[in-house]
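Lab notes, practical 5.
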Amino acid sequence: MRLAITIAAVAAALSVSASAATLLSNTFADFEIQRFNTQPSEFTGGPREAGVDGDSVIFTSTNSSSVFAYEFAYSLNTNGAWGGGRRGFVGLNAPFGTVTFTFDRPVSGVGGLFNYAPPFTSNGEAIIRVLGEQGGVLETWNLSLDAPIETPDGIDRGAFRGFERSRADIYALEISNAFIVVDNLVWSRDNADAPVPIPAAGWLFGLILSGLGFLRRQRSLTGLNQVH
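Output from the prediction step:
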């Protein structure tokens, strides 16, 4: 019983993931930025490369009519519109679906200037999330509920939203639903060269293993004493 409790405690402690923060502004000390101004404007589901300074970032979308490096009018319902003055941005161009930006190397933080068409009857809620190496969801933010963007009848307006992790384990950014748009995509590898921290439970795990070995030896000695 004692052993089962110990193993359960260790498993729970080791399951703690890297700490994360949701960002309302770009606080990255060192970052790359992609404004999508240099690519040809098109309707596409990708893939399209949108990297900068040697970094490879691949755009794909579940909607084959998403806009990439778009520079014309794009309606956001009551949040106004993008286009004209905001040359070169990415938009889902559908009420439901997902645009994904996949990095060739993991990053510790990612964000951008976002906006979306506020939800109505046939519109999903605007979601952004970051994924790990195997595609698992690391963090999710429902912009419609948790961090609403309100730009009534605004032109080329938006707000920064993003994520920052305690280590570079983000492999992709997904943005979904509500005709969501993004420009000035930024990412950071501030923690990319730092050693991966040992989980807080690492020392405890080692201590427990030593303790289990000690208990086995004690039981063996007890058994020998009983035989003789």
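Observations recorded by the TA: Residues 3-16, 193-209, 220-225 have pLDDT under 50 and may be disordered. The two ends are 28 Å apart (CA to CA).
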